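The instructor's notes for this session suggest beginning with a concrete chain rather than abstract definitions. Hand out the sequence below and ask the class to guess, before any prediction is shown, which regions might be ordered.
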Amino acid sequence: MEKIIKLKNKNISLEVLPELGASIYSFKIRTKMQDYDIFFPSTQEILKKKKYFSLSSFNLIPYSNRIKSGVLNYNKQKYFLEKNEDNKNAIHGEVFDKNFKVIKKDETSIKMNFDSSNSKSISWPFPFLTGVSYQLLNKGLKICLYVKNTGTEKMPVGMGIHPYLNRYISSNSEKIRADLPLIGYYPGEGQIPNSGWKPLNNKYKKLKSGIFSTEFLDRCFIINPDSDITFHWLDSNLKLTFQVDPIFKHLVIYRPKEKIDFFAVEPVTNANDGFNLAEKGIKDTGFIELEPGERIYGNILLTLGGDLI
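After discussion, reveal the predicted structure:
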């Protein structure tokens, strides 16, 4: 069984899986009476069945979300990636099941990295080095990501995180208020956009501020990264705020059709299929290109507030 590393301070605990993409197994508030899961908790069953996309949070590197049909179009070349979404699309990057090396660790922080050139199970055609670090703060968690081009050619790159938030903290009828800095959305019948982003329509304008619905949603949005992403569990009086670096200009929101006890909020750099959209000349897809030896960095700060902490 994969090793779980636990970090903790007075208020918060975090369990990390370095051998599985530096993913998060649990993220909790600690109180004298009990612990409260902020991220939807993982289980040993998930590990046994290797359902790694069901872990509390996992990292999206060297791209986020989907690449249509597993075909990356870049610089007038076609590259064929592993189609790990029901043999349809490439999804969620390449590192979610990879073994990260622990570089540094103490009671409240951990730094890890992964070199793709040491792995034979990478379909991404460009070699890269990536790092993930977690640092517990008094009332929060700081997540740092980087990706470096270690090859001799230019490469497209993206990154982000995929946390599942616990919908119910204190009660099974708890409502959540959301305040989201949405600017526009990517249209399409499914998760693959059929064009560049469009201004919010009436349906998505309602998402910006108000009670967060349980209605199915799986959509990529372009956001103002200078503004906070906030969720407020009303019965618990618990507030979670995401503050992201400007590189994370997109946000994927996923609310499942049937299982409504969690939802995903994913700050990411690129839009779904953003590299292929950029190859078509579409702007503002989060397309980033790295020269050999160049790297990108990004920080995501999660801050907790309210009666439980």
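Then share the key points. Helices lie at 44-48, 202-205, 274-279. Residues 6 and 127 are 30 Å apart (CA to CA).
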